[in-house]
Hints:
Blueprint: E1 2-4, E2 7-8, E3 19-26, E4 32-38, E5 40-47, E6 50-57, H1 68-77, E7 82-90, H2 93-106
Parallel strand pairs: 1-7
Antiparallel strand pairs: 1-2, 3-4, 3-7, 5-6
Amino acid sequence: MWLYEGHEFTENLANDKIGFVYLIKNLKTGKSYIGKKLFVSTRTKTIKGKRKKIKTDSGWRDYWGSNAVLKEDVKMLGAENFTREILHLCKSKGTANYLEMREQIDRRVLESDQFYNEWIMVKVHRSHIKP
């Protein structure tokens, strides 16, 4: 279950948003992870010799981040020992990239052993950010 503003998040709360920035917290150790996830994935598929973009559900409902150590902890300790909180709903991929990076920098995730995060990688232009 994902939480947003203290309540269970459901798809109808997404409205025109394309993704979100999130915080996953290990309740046993206090260790956290900041990341982002889009609601829809776009894949390129060749159909009758032509490349087409196909949109599919990203699997966000069951998503536990991209960090291998975090995913291993979830497997070992069980999902009930973690919380998943949506910090920001985002209207664009650029906004999600920016807000993820801003949360990671503000929380100094690379400077503390209290975070699973190991990388901060982002390329965002001012025009990508939509209020």
